[in-house]
Amino acid sequence: MVPVKSFMIPREKFVTVARDTDAQTAARIMRDRGIGSLFITNDKEIIGIVTDTDMMRRVVASGSDATKATVEQIMSAPILTIEESKTLLDANDLMAQAHVRHLGVTREGKLVGVISVRDLVVFLTNLPRK
Fold it and tell me: Based on C-alpha coordinates, what's the Rg of the chain?
């Protein structure tokens, strides 16, 4: 089976925002870039992830003011991770068990990438058909 590192988005391509960024600004960044998540930073350290699902559940559904809620208040932390040598099937299983759509990818415990359900769908879509 294919290792996670083959389909991960490398850390250098992460889109990040500071922890005090308001939810509305974060949502606009995600919309404009066509992405489903942002990494949250404190200085240069990644401290969490905010996803489109977090936005829906923790801002929109709760009736929070998106201009006042910060991404730090709605982010998921710590980020659930998987080692880069694990397989895409392992990633799929972990996502299903934990009910998440994004996993941080680690190398020797250090965050080096991210993989999402969307990445798994792209992989499956490109498999040869019998």
Answer: 15
Where do the structural domains in the chain lie, given as residue ranges?
A: 4-125
- Topology of domain 4-125 in CATH is CBS-domain (3.10.580)
The tokens 């299903």 sit on which residue?
96
pLDDT 10s digits, 47-98: 999 999 999 999 999 999 999 999 999 999 999 999 999 999 999 999 999 9
pTM of the model: 0.88
State which H helix or E strand residue 82 sits in: strand 81-83
| Residue 3 vs residues 27, 63, 71, 78: alpha-carbon distances, Å | 31, 40, 31, 23
**Length of the chain counted residue by residue:** 130
**What's the CA gap between 92 and 13, in Å, rounded?**
22
65 three-class SS: coil
Q: How far apart are CA 129 and CA 102, in angstroms?
A: 27
